[in-house]
Specification:
mainly alpha; Arc Repressor Mutant, subunit A; Four Helix Bundle (Hemerythrin (Met), subunit A); 2 domains
Length: 250
Amino acid sequence: MQDMTTEAVAAPRGRSEAVIRARILQAIFERRLPPGEKLTEDRLAELFAVSRTVVRQALARLAQDGIVEHHPNRGAFVAAPSRGEARHVMAARTVVEPEVARLAACACDGAGATRLRRHLAGEDAARAAGDRAALVRLTGEFHVTLAEIAGNPVFARLLTELQALSSLAILLYARGEHASCPPHDHAAIASAIEAGDADSAARLMREHIVHVDADMDLSEPAARPDRLADALGMHPRRHMPTARGPSRQA
C-alpha cells in the first residue's frame, strides 16, 4: 500500500487508538504497508476521524513495540528492520513459538479444534483464490490464534508484535517471491495440537520457524569494494606517501 487512501483504510468514524493500531497492523500483516512507509498524523486523523492526539497515541504504542520508527523532524515511518534485527525476531520466535504450540496442544478443546479447522479452511480458500493479501494475513494470524487457544494473552500480544516484524523482514529480505508460510506446515501443527500431542506440536513449530527463516537472506552483505581507493592505488588506513624533495648533497 503505497498511498493510504480512504478506501484502503475503510474505518468507521470516531475510532479509538486501539482500532487505529489494529488497522495499521493488519495492513502490515497483508504487506500493504511496506517498510519505510510514512505515517502522516494529519492524514491518519482525517481517515479515522479522530484527533491528532489519538493518532499520536496509536503511533507511540506501535513505536514501543518496534513496529513504527520516529525520525526527528521527519515524522513516523513503518519500521524497516535491519538484518540483525530480523535475526533477533526469528530467534525470539524460535524460543517462544514451540512453547506456545505445546501449551495450545495441552489446552485445546473442541471449540479450539473447530477454530483451528476454520482458520485452515480460510487459508486454503485464500490460497485457491490467489488472494495473496488475505493469505499472508491469515498465515500470520495462525500463530496468534495458537497463543489465544493456549489461553495466554501475554503470548498473544507478543506474537502479534513478532508477526508484524516478521512480515516487514520478509518484505525486505525474502529470497525471491515469498507469499506466505509453507502451505502444509500449519496443517501438520494443527493436527498435532488437536490430537493433544504437545511434543510433536512443539517440534513441528520449531521446524516451521526454520522453514520461514530459510526463506530469508539474513546474512550480512559483504563489504562493498572501495572503487575510488582501488583506482588510486590507495586503501583504507593506508597513509598517502609523503613527497620527498631532492636530497641535499654535501
